[in-house]
Amino acid sequence: MTDTSTPDLNGAGLRGAADLRIGVVGFGNRGRLALEAHRPGGGSRVTAVCDLSERSRAEAAEAFPGALVTANLAELLGSGVDAVMVLTPDHQHAAVAIPALEAGVAVFCEKPLAISLDDCDRILEAARRTGSRLYVGHNMRHMPVVTLMRRLVEEGRIGRVKAVWCRHFVGNGGDYYFKDWHADRSKSVGLLLQKGAHDLDVIHWLAGGYARGVQAIGALSVYGDIDDRRDRSGERVGDWFSFDNWPPTAQMGLNPVVDVEDISQVNLVLDNGVLASYEQCHFTPDYWRNYTVIGTEGRLENMGDTAGSEVRLWNRRHGSAAPADETFLVEEGVGGHGGADARLVAEFVRFARDGGPTLTSPVAARQAVAAGLVATASIRGDGRLLPVPPLDDGLVAYFDAGQTGA
């Protein structure tokens, strides 16, 4: 069961303290999180970067003057860092996070936590065994549209939650996920894990429970028919992205291996009885998420997920489609993902130094991976409802106690 409280995340205790020394492993597409963490004199600074790519190392040397730049993880871990941010491709998370935890430093691991439950659980076990603090980068828990809906749920504005639906229109899917390693299931498993981990975590958070059974259908409906492929080693999304890459059937230069689904539909039964569904499509013209949360006394729905979008609330009976009884505007944030990236990194820096409660949760991160993996197994099997493997009770207790061993 997820927690129902919202912690105070004001970052108290950081001012006046020496900067947290941060090592970054992986300075590619998610490198902007490292830039968010580099606040010399403001609480944290990047002092070391490790990447196997010569291009990434050159860019890191320019972005962080004076920092150690290396291709050797052991050299980074031995450089005196206080914390490590793991920003590598997903299949490499465990191989970096576990040695970092064993080195006794706080670890930020980008979501998804890993691409197998075994690796997820090994990361959690390493954190408990070493006492090193573990934080998982589920930035959507800091997105204004999500925190607004979460607040309205917590306030009881729609009664007790009974259903959560999410439709995810991934309008940039062809460029973001089918031209590099994401399209190869040996590196990503599938996009219900890599991309869907965000939304599955939010569904769990809004519903107040974790999936115990998952059923799904899906297909590689569009991108599998495109035979224009190329090896893009050394390239990044910014090198090929364009809104002119339309329609999806006209995409060019896809990854040599494309064997993940581009459309999926998932049903979930949560451990508190809530029913949920998640739909993900990578060839839509628009790019946004639409959540509906239905309770015993009303429902919420967001129309748009960026600043100025609306979260609408209905809590009276209507004879047909009707304007919302109340409307709430999504606030504006500064930086990536509506300000969520900056808030995420600030929370990690505070947690790495001082501990305390966080909006994100390693247990919830593991459960999002579990739901995504089981959904993918259902798709690639016969579409039946499959059980979600539970997490060890001792690990749940350790992280629920705030990683204090209590």
UniProtKB/TrEMBL annotation:
In terms of InterPro entries, this protein maps to: Gfo/Idh/MocA-like_OxRdtase_N, Gfo/Idh/MocA_oxidoreduct, GFO_IDH_MocA-like_dom, NAD(P)-bd_dom_sf
In this chain the Gfo/Idh/MocA-like oxidoreductase N-terminal domain maps to 20-138
Extract the Pfam families matched here: GFO_IDH_MocA, GFO_IDH_MocA_C3
Q: Which UniProt keywords apply?
A: NAD
Cite the GFO/IDH/MocA-like oxidoreductase domain residue spans from the record.
148-301
Q: Which named protein is this? A: Gfo/Idh/MocA family oxidoreductase
Which species is listed as the source? Leifsonia williamsii
